[in-house]
Amino acid sequence: MRRRGRGAPAVGRGSTIHIAMATHQPMTSAAGVNGDTKTVETYHEDAVHDAQLDFYGSKLATCSSDRTIKVFDVQNGEAVGAGETLVGHEGPVWQVAWAHPSFGTILASASYDGKVFIWKNEGTNTGAYGAAGGWTRIKEHALHTASVNAIAWAPHELGATLACASSDGRVSVLTFNEDGSWSVDLVTAHPGGCNAVSWMPTSAKETSPDAPLTRRFATGGCDSVVKVWEFSEEHNRYVEVDQLTNHKDWVRDVAFAPSLGLPRTYLATASQDRTVLVWTQNEAQGPWTCTPLMPGTKAEDRSKFADTVWRVSWSISGNVLAVSCGDGKVSLWKENLKGAWECISDLDA
Fold this sequence. Notes:
Elements: E1 16-20, E2 25-26, E3 37-41, E4 48-53, E5 59-64, E6 69-75, E7 78-86, E8 93-98, E9 105-111, E10 116-121, E11 135-141, E12 148-153, E13 161-166, E14 170-176, E15 182-188, E16 194-199, E17 216-221, E18 226-232, E19 237-244, E20 251-256, E21 265-271, E22 276-281, E23 288-292, E24 309-314, E25 320-325, E26 329-335, E27 341-348
Antiparallel strand pairs: 1-2, 1-3, 4-5, 5-6, 6-7, 8-9, 9-10, 10-11, 12-13, 13-14, 14-15, 16-17, 17-18, 18-19, 20-21, 21-22, 22-23, 24-25, 25-26, 26-27
């Protein structure tokens, strides 16, 4: 069984992470622009790889190479207590993802052990399968044969649907059905391994109230390619609809921007080639336009960041892009009226 993981970076130093107070977002995401942050002690025993706040900003989930997940209550920007510990993974946990609250208090976790766990909090004092504080593991997804590097919940209008990207080159789309069963769609996405996945907002491509919702997501892989996939009703499976090939090394992250109610779609991609590209599409099935961020000072190398770019994340409003690099720096970017992207803040993670 291949276990090649993403080699995910730490999001903080040691067992601590930082939350930006302007929007209560972890500093791996597009936080407030003023850099006002608070430090959170996670009590993990190894590097912390991801930190995610839930829909309301009232719970913080973290995951670590110590094979555990921590869940904290958040009050006034402060994580309360030592948190609840969820165990069961047999390798580093790379990523956590909260489902929309309409499905309950649901958290998914992805690990180097090739498994995805889905946890539910019932609000009781006891849990099951190594959980605490009422957390119960309701699903163990063990279809992949290598590290699961990234997970992403689909827009809630599409139901409780989770995409899982793996080093085995495949993406599995796990859907909870009304009868209580789970169904899986498999996509062979990137032969060398898949590092990232992101869903397109459902409203970004809808042309009329009666139009069917578009199920579309993007993936990034070790083949240096970004691919866009859409569910085909005709073929009853996900099919590749676009391939974006401007990166020169592994694609480490992909992120669709939240919809602003405009017809244009934004997709940010980050790569080991030290570049971030912002792709825009003005209409469904239309061409993608690529604009690189320009962080450098040398004319011949302006598109290069100082280190590998590991994460890109949009603000809730979709107008600020956070870029997280291997040197521990987080920069915030915003598009100006001329369509160019400007750095508006630099933060130390």
